[in-house]
């Protein structure tokens, strides 16, 4: 349930200790520290990172020890609220993934219909794909990636008549 916390906090703890070593005060990179760390003492923060950076602990053990930690330092309320938020976020992400997966096959049908109609200009194809992107940006991105598994960066190699000949309208 709280596996997100462990992962997210591990990241934070890495960023945090790297910054401490550099004497930096926190920069634009990395997620912000969880709010329950905001007003605790340095010792409490240290105790927290000792728990979450212990590679020997299971996720369940990390969750139970950090809950005890929160209680010890009087920040259980905000700790629990944060956990509830993380759980809700995870649920929302999972819901999106499920939705994208169930959308994929119908969006693929739409893409195939567009690409299989040869009686249209490339800019007409472009326009149809742009419309599809409006309603299903992630699905289109994933499907175009699968359709054209070449790295998108690297500039226009070959151009017209290049190794993609015949698929020039694919993007
Ligand atoms: C931390 O303390 C400041 C100043 O007292 C307060 O404004 C802020 O809401 C507190 N943050 C948390 C997460 O408790
Ligand atoms: C984790 O386990 C290893 C092997 O048992 C041990 O050497 C190490 O001290 C442990 N680390 C912590 C933080 O307990
Ligand atoms: C939890 O989410 C609510 C709504 O987005 C937000 O207002 C609140 O600050 C969050 N609390 C914590 C502890 O992250
Ligand atoms: C879920 O998808 C919607 C649009 O498809 C997006 O606005 C929202 O931010 C996504 N939620 C999460 C948690 O990724
Ligand atoms: C799935 O497709 C529907 C209809 O096109 C769209 O409204 C929804 O946002 C799509 N799901 C996601 C997660 O993008
Ligand atoms: C198709 O759209 C892409 C990106 O919007 C653009 O760079 C390209 O020139 C367009 N091609 C045609 C033939 O309209």
Descriptive labels:
171 residues; mainly alpha; 65% helix; 0% strand; elongated; disordered C terminus; binds 2-acetamido-2-deoxy-beta-D-glucopyranose
Task: Describe the model.
This protein has 171 residues and is mainly α. Among the domains are: 3-22 and 30-74, no CATH class; 98-147. Helices cover 65% and strands 0% of the residues. The chain contains 6 helices and no strands. The chain has helices spanning 3-22, 42-52, 59-72, 76-116, 122-135, 137-147. Helix 4 runs antiparallel to helix 5 and helix 4 crosses helix 6 (137-147). Mean pLDDT is 82; it is low at 7-27 and 158-171. The structure holds 2-acetamido-2-deoxy-beta-D-glucopyranose (6 copies). One 2-acetamido-2-deoxy-beta-D-glucopyranose is lined by residues 122-123, 126.
Give the helix level as a range of percent: 55-70%
- Terminal CA distance: 40 Å
Q: What's the alpha carbon Rg, rounded to whole Å?
A: 24 Å
Number of helices: 6
Tell the overall outline.
Answer: elongated
Strand content: under 5%
Present as ligands are: 2-acetamido-2-deoxy-beta-D-glucopyranose
Instruction: Spell out the helices and strands N to C.
Output: HHHHHH
Structural class comes to: mainly alpha
Largest sheet: none
Spans where pLDDT lies below 50 across 5 or more residues:
7-27, 158-171
Mean pLDDT: 82
Number of strands: 0
